[in-house]
Amino acid sequence: MNNQAGAARAYNPAEIEGKWYAYWESNGFFEADSESGKAPHVIMMPPPNVTGALHMGHALQDTIQDVLTRLRRMQGFEALWMPGKDHAGIATQNVVERHVKSTRGESRHDLGREDFIAEVWKWVEEYGGRILQQKRCIGDSCDWRRERFTMDEKYVKAVQAIFVRLYEDGLIYRGSYLVNWCPVDQTALSDEEVDNVEQEGHLWHVRYPFAQDSGYVTVSTTRPETILGDTAVAVHPDDERYQHIIGQNVVVPLVERIVPVIADTYVRPEFGAGALKITPGHDKNDFEIGRRHGLDMVTVLDTNAIVNGNGGQFAGLDRFEARERIVDQLAQSDLLDKVEPYKVSVPVSQRSKAVIEPLLSRQWFVRMKPLAEPAIEAVRRGDVRFYPRRWQNEFFRWMTEMRDWCISRQLWWGHRIPVWYHIDDEGKPDAERDYIVAVECPGEGMVQDEDVLDTWFSSWLFPFATLGWPGEDATTRSDLDFFHPTQVLVSGYDILFFWISRMIMASLYVTGEVPFRDVLITGMVKDRYGRWMSKSLGNGIDPIDMIQKYGADAVRYQLTVVCAQGQDVRLHPEGFERGRNFCNKIWNAFNVFGRFLDSNKEYPLRPFTEGSLVERWMVTRLNEAIEAINADIDRYRLNEALTKIHSLFWGDYCDWYLELIKPPHGEPMPDATVGLAAKLYERLIQLLHPFMPFITEELWHRVKRRGPQEACIVSVWPQVTGDLDDPACEVFSRFQDIVTSVRNIRSRYRISPARSVHLVVSLAPGSVQLESPLLACEPYFRRLARVAMLDVGVQVERPKACATSVIGDMEVYLPLAGLVDLEEERRRLTQDLDRKVSFLKRVQGKLTNTRFVERAPVAVVELERQKERDTDSEIRRLRASLEAIA
Prior knowledge:
Blueprint: H1 17-26, E1 40-44, H2 56-74, E2 78-82, E3 84-85, H3 89-104, H4 108-111, H5 113-127, H6 130-137, E4 148-149, H7 153-168, E5 172-182, E6 187-189, E7 194-209, E8 216-221, E9 232-235, E10 249-252, E11 257-263, E12 276-278, H8 284-293, H9 319-332, E13 336-349, E14 357-366, H10 369-381, E15 385-387, H11 390-401, E16 405-406, E17 408-409, E18 419-421, E19 436-437, E20 447-448, E21 452-453, H12 455-459, H13 462-465, H14 474-483, E22 486-492, H15 496-511, E23 516-522, E24 525-527, H16 543-550, H17 552-561, E25 569-571, H18 576-594, H19 613-634, H20 638-661, H21 671-688, H22 693-703, H23 727-748, E26 757-763, H24 771-776, H25 778-785, E27 787-794, E28 802-807, E29 810-815, H26 822-847, H27 850-855, H28 858-884
Parallel strand pairs: 1-2, 3-4, 9-11, 15-23, 22-23, 24-25, 26-27
Antiparallel strand pairs: 5-6, 5-14, 7-8, 7-13, 9-12, 10-11, 14-16, 17-21, 18-19, 18-20, 26-29, 28-29
Helix pairs in contact: 3-5, 10-11, 10-15, 16-17, 17-18, 18-20, 18-22, 19-20, 19-21, 19-23, 20-21, 21-22, 26-28
């Protein structure tokens, strides 16, 4: 790219972003090579749903992943960022079902499985890649050649292979258990796909008559509709109230089923009346009690949550309609003792938002304990490290409490379970005969299981299945051996259990190694008030809209600086202006020296010790910053690293260095000055590149004409060069403190920036060595503080009517005569002082009032105390200012 140096027009991100992305991609800068000889650095992209569009959560995590990838690439690593997308079983099937219904007026059942799957593939080919195209807009430097889809042919083989292996090792089994059933999506769900939502409900106290004797036992329930499936009443064996009825029989109301009274330690005597109805077919805890006591498992709801034939007179009713009818009949039959308001925890599907029904169903499960134990040990050994560390404790908590994983789903779109059944007399799969687990059909006349696997069962293989496992050819083995384990995973805490933990288990089981060394947990994106973003609240922010308005670099900047490790991120659209302002600053800074720059010329750099004070200081500040920035990056504190770069660029380079080296209007800039300004600018651009790649690549080529292999994206990350302990820096630091003090005095006394001042600096005897260097700074003081006359000495006598500022062992005096109307200033300061004194008396009056202090809220009292402290400080400042001009 041959861009000429010189003054640049106003920054317009739309003019450069598409150009540079195409340039990077066409030159293969994103591509990783396992034969390069470099050390690998690999990040696996959490594969977005094929149904998805880019949202702020994606934009945040993609920015962090891209920063790390670009940074490691510049540091000399063979950096691979592996892209992919997930087939998202339930979500995709639902989207396509709605699409088919709206366009053709047909259901998936009208089409049949084969034709419906063909429709899904058409939809995926047309719309499934849109999110990956959107990711390019924010600058993702993925190796797009390697893009993987969890329904690719090779990936399907990997999923089938691990199923077979787990089954052969006794870690997958089929059984009839109580599962989370979604009556809307018509499939089983894992515990992690269900949210428990607290709602206002009721506690119904119901009388269960004794079968042989008169009287009854009262049980309490929050779900009266499940009475239809009761097979026992349980009490605690130590509950003295009920020991005499253990072993007796009671009659289940309305269905007249005779059931036993059993004793079980699960029962909490303090809940309700202390007796518990047991419905093994519709409650997970009751299911376990039922297994311990050999109870019947009665199912009274079908897959649509409609009462089935076991519900007698209530058959055909929806579960909630049945609840109302049952409560009415219990009341009419004098079997309803009382009803109390009660908060209940209702299980709700994360996707459909339907109330989940625990349902007895034959499903496939993975035994988790044998897989979890090695993963727990690996994290304890430090093979996997969490940033921030507190998420390690959450990992341990979940891993030690997990149940077996229900992996079968009653869907059509997804990975078919590799299990094969014989055909019965009606031509249907005979689930009661022996089945065969195999990747290919094991024999003529056998049919495959109709269910598919949980989406997470395929995505837990992502770190190694995308690199060729279980293939044995030389290429895939080379990639797997070289790129696995990966270095860092970037993810939100919302999928710590869905995905991150399971990947650790799968990778250890399959490869014997952890899938990644570090896990960087980001916070979740919320609005400015800390609320989740949602369509219903209308508070979502579209990252593509923000990119079009502010530019990708501005969006990346803002997302990074607000992303403190492990903390939720609060965003509002106006916040992205900060990033745009910084882009403008970066762009305009180039013009200070760029108008003197010849991009074809090599500029001489004078020896460091021969540079001016500000040049030596700026070089040293750059070195100090690089050291601190590297330390932040090593701890994945990218927000702190970028904040330091911002301060270095805007504060040190622009506000101090450039202001002191730029020549008066119309005068030239010496070549040596131009050369160093450009070299420092290049280093700053390189530090910024991983965070803000588009604008930095553009300016990198403006500073100097470069070929493709000299692009900023593949340039070498800046290193610390030279001694960080340069005495000149101490002098310049003192100069900065004095200038800042003068500016504050100007502001305090309302002295016009155009007025020149007389500056007097009094040094302590121990700082006599600063006298000559500070006097030599007179041109700098003249430039940045409008100082017409400078006096520096040891223990200089304080001039009359002057403002004073103490800076460590120095005192700064600014004579005010001729700059301000001293009488008017005394009058103004006196009035301000009187107002503050009066205000302080009122505040102190409140604080000495015992009734106020004891009765007012703590926050209100503390606010008044803060007012007292602030006002007292202002009074002292006003009195000092009055004394200065007395």
